Amino acid sequence: MLTSSEQLEKRFTLYKFHSIPDKAHFLNSNKASIRAVVGNASAGADAQLIHQLPNLEIVSSFSVGLDKIDLAKCKERGIRVTNTPDVLTDDVADLAIGLMLAVLRRLCQSDRYVRSGQWKKGDFKLTTKFTGKSVGIIGLGRIGLAIAKRAEAFRCPISYHARTEKSDVNYKYYPSVVELAANCQILVVACALTEETRHIINREVINALGPKGVLINIGRGPHVDEPELVSALVQGRLGGAGLDVFQDEPNVPEELFGLENVVLLPHVGSGTMETRKEMADLVIGNLEAHFLNRPLLTPVL
Ligand SMILES: O=CC(=O)O
């Protein structure tokens, strides 16, 4: 089976920009021929790159998140943009529930307990029940809703914050994130990263969630004021955290490494073979559709 970059290479002239050492020189020599950019969760098309590519027609991102693409610039230039929604929703929602269980039931710590032979010296300490805990979700889009559905099966009361109240759900709506945090035991970040949602988890929200509260972040690192989160966890002002994303990936604050109430994952929300294949198919399908003048499969712009 061909890898996704082999498939791209079969159909297009592919430049692996991330591995080109002298990017400025490369752009200078090739800028006129580049008509498409393939991005992902860590690199997309910012204003500078868009500006350097006069014939750019489409940005096709191997991610649902669009925060690495300057959408306003794309719109201004008439550049099409696509992402990979829906196909990754289940995986990301599964992982959010996995993080809740892992933090509350101390799954990673228990595993280390067995491997290191400590079990022979005594039983593992008691942990905290997940079923029935109240779950607050920031962002009730596709992924937020999928998390809510799963948490409902664990008999968790669900509440949420979003820009506007949804008329088609029965979950309790909080117009303020601080109020949501004060009224739930597990707070999940599941919204898109935009200028409005950067640092949506700040000191006030963390303090409202409190020393028994748990933060789950499957969104983006910059949703959280990371130094504030680290100090709250170190000082015991927050009960725990399950984090799949960080401010400066792959760098993770080392103060977190020694904390047992924290589970740290390397941004793997959509990281299954099945889903990554569906995402790659969408990226390639969108590019093909564009260059054949057919309707895009998952257009953003
Ligand atoms: O983080 C992953 C994505 O946006 O798809």
From TrEMBL:
The keyword Transferase does not apply. Residues 97-269 form the D-isomer specific 2-hydroxyacid dehydrogenase NAD-binding domain. GO terms for molecular function: glyoxylate reductase (NADPH) activity; hydroxypyruvate reductase [NAD(P)H] activity; NAD binding. Keywords: NAD, NADP, Oxidoreductase. Signal peptide: none annotated. GO terms for cellular component: cytosol. GO terms for biological process: photorespiration. Residues 33-300 form the D-isomer specific 2-hydroxyacid dehydrogenase catalytic domain. Its EC number is 1.1.1.79. Belongs to the D-isomer specific 2-hydroxyacid dehydrogenase family. PANTHER family: 2-HYDROXYACID DEHYDROGENASE YGL185C-RELATED, 2-HYDROXYACID DEHYDROGENASE-RELATED. This is glyoxylate reductase (NADP(+)). It comes from Salix purpurea.
